[in-house]
Structure formats: structure tokens, C-alpha cells
Amino acid sequence: MDAREIVIEFEAAWQRGDYATVRRWLADDVIFTGPFETLRTADAYVASLARAGERLERMEIRKIFADGDDVAVFCDLAMKAPLPTSFVARWYTVEGGKIRQARVVFDARPFAAIAAPSPGVRS
After folding, report:
1. Phi then psi for 80, rounded to 5 degrees?
2. Measured between alpha carbons, how far is 70 from 83 in angstroms, rounded to an integer?
3. Which of 13, 26, 45, 105 is the most exposed place for a label (fewest CB within 10 A)?
4. What's this model's pTM, rounded to 2 decimal places?
């Protein structure tokens, strides 16, 4: 399989909630970078995807670009209320048949506002 096919399989597994397959496509020392966290192991990344998957209503892939081992996925993530639908850009780097690096970019402001404690509440 080429990098594009691997990423498509990975994304489809995540949408299905098939985390065993998600894990199989990741290098053990995958590096994930997103607006809220940076992770350096496959197990930590799978756990993060599982948390996000609990809130996912549907994902609509708009475009996939591949350039050798680099694959970019542009999609709309429709999240369960009260979370918004967000346009998301993901950039994967595949090495040796596994995703070695994943970078995610989206407007995190609506999510940060939801996650922020209410005024007067201390954590």
C-alpha cells in the first residue's frame, strides 16, 4: 500500500471506532501535534483519538493530497452538540508502511471556550 492508501484506511478505521486497526497503522513512536496536545507514542495518540471519537458525529473528507510519503487530508468534522463542526487540515508522514507523524490544524477557539471553566469556578 502507498502512503495515501494507508492514511485512507487509518481515517476510515477512526470513523468506525476501530481502534485496533487505527493502532496497527501507527509507528510505535508516532509524533502527533495538534492545537491542544503533542503526543509521542502510538498508545497515547490512540487514546486521544478514542476521546475525540466519543464526540464525533461524522466526518466528511473534502480532499486528499499525496506527495510521496506525505498525505494531507482536508475534512469537516461534525461533532456532537454543543461542539461545533470544524474544518480540519491533517498532514501525515508515512514511513515503512506506518504513520510516523500526524499534524492537525483547526480553529480551536470554539473548543477552548467550551472547555474553559465557568466564571467563579476554580479548578
Report:
1. -70, 145
2. 29
3. 105
4. 0.86
Is 112 part of any domain? no
Q: Determine phi and psi for 33, rounding to 5 degrees.
A: -130, 125
Count of domains observed in the chain: 1
Tell which residue, 106, 91, 104, 102, has the closest CA to residue 25.
Answer: 102
> What letter represents residue 34's amino acid?
G
Contacts of 1 (CB under 8 A, 6+ apart): 9, 97
For residue 17, what are the CA distances in angstroms to 22, 23, 104, 117? 9, 11, 19, 29
123 inside domain = no
Query: Angle at the Cα of 8 (from 86 to 18), degrees rounded to 5?
Result: 85
10-residue averages of pLDDT along the chain (123 residues):
98 95 98 94 96 88 98 92 88 98 89 57 42
Q: What domain range is 82 assigned to?
A: 3-106
